[in-house]
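#onboarding

Welcome to the new folks! Below is a worked example of what a typical request in this channel looks like: someone posts a single protein sequence, and someone else replies with the predicted structure as tokens. Don't worry about understanding the tokens yet, we'll cover that in week two.

Example request:
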Amino acid sequence: MLMGADYYESDDIRQKLLNSGRVPIGIGARTTIQNTIVDKNARIGSDCVIVNKEGVEESNRENEGFYIRSGIVTVLRNAEIKNGTVL
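Example response:
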């Protein structure tokens, strides 16, 4: 489930974020997401795999921008998941 975003980032802003090593709002290219809730204004980089591949039931990793409850990954509001992250 994707919650969307509260605001729009122009192409110029998106490019500046990418040039500085940051991730723009939304989901990057070649990213796979399954059984996941993505909260508002989340930034998920390119080439990420968010599928709970290890089958973790519970995990508090809010400082990394997500947690897992009953095996479902939740990407937190305003979180930034770096390019190439595998969960």
